[in-house]
Specification:
The protein has one domain. The radius of gyration is 22 Å and the shape is globular. Helix 3 packs across helix 10. It is mainly α.
Length: 408
């Protein structure tokens, strides 16, 4: 869920000379792809049962949550693509840019959730769980809620992934500096290890489940908390982000960009799509999907779409999908508060049943509101706020430097 901006690319490290700087092309297909990934998450949460009658549609919607794992890998890939050649990377500027890009819309969504938690008929939650509600609100303000299973889904529940992203951003300058020194073979091996690391703890949890339940070593409540921590804790999701960094380095070293059509990439994308649908249908425990089971498949999608030499890449890179892709972050983070707004307004107008989460009219109104707000926010609000934040910090730094006496 990152804006794809232009910056120098990275070439394989050489002992004899600095890395050669090569121009970057825009990753338009990945921008368009972000829209469908965000839409899958929204569909997973809110599409009513009346639209899930088709088997293929139902399989896709019921696994829409895997898009978050895709976003983590994509985040590592795009950040590497944009920043790998900056040597050294200015960590402070990087963190400021990420804060200015992510936090304003995140805070708006958080504030809206708080408002509708009080206004709606479900406001009794903060009365019966006041300590958890207050703690979740405080941690959410600092993007720390996902570190505790009790608060991971508090307030604006999609925000747990932004809690993970904040941790990834903190780690990125240090990870990139180290991983850039690896040769191609070592990078390939590390990407495989990242995949295995992502699955290790979930596999232990799933395998030990029947034994733990039979012996009574853990209560169901404790197992639920363990499930939440493994699924949502930033440290357990870090391998997906690191996988994306490795993929980005491999792409920058060995990419073949052009306007020509690549049948190999076309075949790889089709095979990845078939594998994804097969795993959806015959797949294992949900936790494995949530923690990176599909990372190799995502790697194929990201690499081939970034190269831009397939019919799917051409479609995803069209102007309308680029606009929707740019709005994907707002669409993702605003889904919960705008669902609450839809229900509150329609209930106030006595339209339908506000307690019926399977109402098709509710969903259609919600989707129209979400798309409109997200597109307008990404075009007008986000850039304005981002520029103002960066300018404010730049002015403060300039003022501070001007007060420092010269060494003359």
């Amino acid at each position: 869920m990152n804006t794809i901006s232009e910056s120098p690319a990275y070439s394989a490290p050489q002992a004899e000379a600095p890395a050669r700087r090569t121009p970057l092309h825009k990753l338009d297909a990945l921008t368009g792809c972000r829209f469908f990934a965000a839409l899958a998450v929204v569909g997973y949460h809110y599409v009513p049962a009346s639209l899930r009658t088709n088997l293929l549609v139902r399989e896709i919607l019921e696994h829409g949550f895997v898009s978050v794992s895709f976003f983590f890998a994509l985040s590592g890939f795009v950040l590497t693509y944009n920043y790998a050649q900056q040597n050294p990377l200015n960590s402070n500027k990087f963190w400021l840019a990420r804060f200015a890009r992510i936090y304003p819309m995140y805070f708006i969504a958080l504030a809206l959730v708080g408002i509708f938690a009080v206004l709606s008929r479900h406001s009794n939650y903060w009365q019966t769980h006041s300590a958890q509600f207050i703690l979740g609100g405080i941690l959410s303000l600092f993007c720390l809620q996902a570190w505790l299973p009790q608060t991971a889904l508090c307030w604006n529940f999609p925000g747990w992934s932004l809690s993970c992203e904040a941790f990834f951003y903190a780690c990125f300058p240090f990870l990139l500096k180290r991983l850039k020194t690896l040769q191609t073979k070592a990078t390939l091996v590390l990407s495989g290890l990242c995949w295995l690391a992502a699955l290790a703890l979930p596999l232990v949890f799933v395998a030990a489940g029947p034994f733990v339940s039979a012996t009574g070593w853990a209560t169901e409540a404790n197992r639920t908390l363990d499930d939440l921590w493994i699924s949502y804790a930033p440290i357990t999701q870090l391998p997906a982000f690191a996988f994306g960094i490795c993929l980005g380095l491999l792409f920058l070293r060995h990419r073949k960009i052009g306007t020509g059509h690549s049948w190999l990439q076309e075949a790889a994308l089709i095979a990845a799509l078939v594998a994804t649908l097969a795993l959806f249908h015959f797949g294992p425990h949900k936790m494995l999907f949530n923690n990176g089971l599909l990372l190799p498949v995502f790697g194929v999608f990201i690499y081939c779409l970034a190269a831009g030499r397939s019919a799917l890449a051409a479609f995803l890179g069209t102007a309308p999908l680029r606009v929707l892709g740019d709005a994907s972050y707002a669409m993702y983070i605003l889904q919960a508060p705008l669902w609450g707004l839809t229900r509150y307004v329609m209930a106030a107008l006595h339209v339908g049943n506000a307690d019926d989460k399977q109402s098709l009219p509710y969903f259609l109104v919600f989707l129209a509101l979400l798309l409109s707000a997200s597109v307008l926010g990404s075009i007008y609000a986000e850039p304005f706020i981002r520029v103002r934040i960066i300018s404010l910090f730049a002015e403060r730094n300039s003022a501070r430097e001007s007060r420092v006496p010269s060494a003359a």
